[in-house]
Amino acid sequence: MFDFVHENKRAVQILLALLTLPFAIWGVNSYRQSGSDVLAKVDGVKITQQEFDDAMRQQRAQMQQMMGGRFDPAMLENPLAKQAVLEGLINRRLEVMQAHALGLAPTDAQLARMIASLPYFQRDGKFDKERYRDALRTIGMTPDAFQASVGNDLASGQLTQMYDENGYASRAAAERLIRISEQQRVVRVAHLPSEPFLAKVKVDDADIKKYYDDNQGAFRIPERARVEYVIFSAAALQPGESVSAKEIEEYYSNNPAEFTTPEQRHVLHILIAPKGGDAAAIEAARKKAEAILAEVKRSPGKFGELARKDSDDPVSAAKGGDLGFFTRGKMVKPFDEAVFSLKPGQISDLVQTQYGFHIIKLLAVKPPYTAPLKEVKGAIEQKLRMDKAETEFSQLANNFYDELQADSLKPAAALAKAQIQKSGWLQMGQRQDYPWTDKALEAVFSDDVLKKHRNSTAIEIAPDTLLAVRLADYKPAGIRPLQEVSADIRKQLQRQRAGELASKQGEALLAQLQHGGHAGLKWSAEQTVSRSTQNPAIDPELAARILQADAGKLPAYVGAENPQGGYDLVRVEKVEDAGPVDDAKLARYEAGLRAASGDELFSAVMADVRKRASISVRNFMANGKG
User: Fold this and answer.
1) DSSP 321
2) Burial of residue 240 (number of CB atoms within 10 Å: 0-12, 13-18, 19+)
């Protein structure tokens, strides 16, 4: 409620995405003076070839994550897919421009607080500048460029959120939506499997050859490589570093703040937020807060009960107003000052912040605590070992690059005090486990490695971590031969044609049922279907037909092909309307409607922004770029 990071979970997700998908960052190349080819201009602001390549890599990684082994890199090689990626960059640029035009942007202080709070940039629980700079070097960015890029994403997020939270939703529309969404239809299902029809299916060699010729893309094998590799890292050097007792004692004496936990206070609070920004709304909130404060003062034991009932901070209200322990400076200033002026058990007067009016109760105080040396000795020793390892790594890094000029990885492995390892089969665009980042895979499939059979250069795959590879085996891209896949094709065609026969019989039975006949089917036990809750036993397409069926005369019958094969017939037996609508449910549906209408409004606004913008796009598909 009071913490910028807590309020911006989407922003944290953006930051993590920036760090875990190197170079897949919108806007990064706005800050690189690379002289890249310009693919488009949006009101004079360039979108470069490099930005497009980065976005393509991001799209490839996302599709690989979603589709797994079914992903084919060729899916992104057609002009329509490339054009869609470029359109996404243009739309994103327009959103950021519109957000800036409306004055939407986090402050420098808010960005700094957010970045400092991310565990990715912390060492021993505290923000570490060197770790921050190392992480940014890994993705090829300066701190200023990183903050600017994140600021753009946050501004765009604030713009969409502004519309999502201010859409229109009437009570009548919400009530109607509840009735439609929560109506349940009670059904029984009969399944006609395809297996009994397999014996009637004939598939000859000509059918198999035709399917193979018509679906060459399904049998494409991308180029693949296996490599030997060496990882050189500070972490691997750490066990060989020695640290004396004197060094540990000196570090402990020179860094007392690292081992001291400042005073912490445990509080409950009740927040009463104005229902608008005008003076009348603020005064109404004040009066309500004063009445609750008077009741709390009369009956302090009811604080948690009143917080659950009346507090407008939903997170803490569910816990009786409990905000847990925190240190000075973690909350907004008026709230912070009030908390640190109270004595245990004391209840504050009203405290006003930008969020509304607070009533605060101090439960307990944890005094400052300095851990004795014996408690932190092990942690200090590990830190000093790592510091020495990082120093040695920096000193040896250039030597590692030099050793890669040899005709094997052995000299580099000896320097790194590491084993030469062997990879499995790798391919470009396919999501891989560590250490196979996008940059590492680019090195694997570079001309130096594949064609010239040299060691790769050193690739930074993480802070203080370098990777080098050498080709062990290679298979070019190609098409699997017919004899290798013919058996699979035969089975697929048999299943497909058996399914068609089952569907034909199912449609005939459905027509018979819809005209009052009896098909002698074995119906399942009763189950329910509704728009608000998916029934995992019923395919979504069939569920849609059930909900669209005319329930004026029951039973009603519908049917559809089953995605797993065969045909499903359904008898709709009765319709159960939604129950009474309580305020909580109504509020949830109104919020959903507001978000939907806000999204529609946002789309309309951005369409207008785009219409008024000056956009020029080069026909980069025609000349082979991208």
Assistant:
1) T
2) exposed
Nearest-5° Cα angle at 616, 615 to 620: 135
From the CB of residue 239, how many other CB atoms can be counted at a distance below 10 Å?
A: 9
Phi, psi at residue 617, to the nearest 5°?
-125, 130
How far apart, in whole angstroms, are the C-alpha atoms of residue 259 and residue 252?
A: 8
Classify residue 551 by burial, with Cβ atoms within 10 Å: 0-12, 13-18, 19+.
middle
Q: List helix spans (H) across 273-416.
A: 279-298, 303-310, 314-317, 333-339, 373-403, 410-416
Token pair for 146: 């990183």
Q: Mean pLDDT of residues grouped by 10 in the chain (626 residues)?
A: 41 46 34 58 88 81 69 72 88 89 82 79 80 72 78 84 81 86 92 94 95 92 94 90 94 91 93 87 94 94 93 88 90 93 95 93 93 92 92 92 94 94 88 84 94 94 92 93 95 95 95 88 93 87 92 93 92 89 84 86 90 83 43
Which of these, 35, 15, 272, lies nearest to 157 by C-alpha position? 15
Bridge partner list, 75 = none
Contact 22, 138 (CB under 8 A): yes
* Phi-psi category of residue 617: left, alpha or beta, with phi > 0 → left and psi -120 to 50 → alpha: beta
CA pair distance 124, 530, nearest whole angstrom: 50
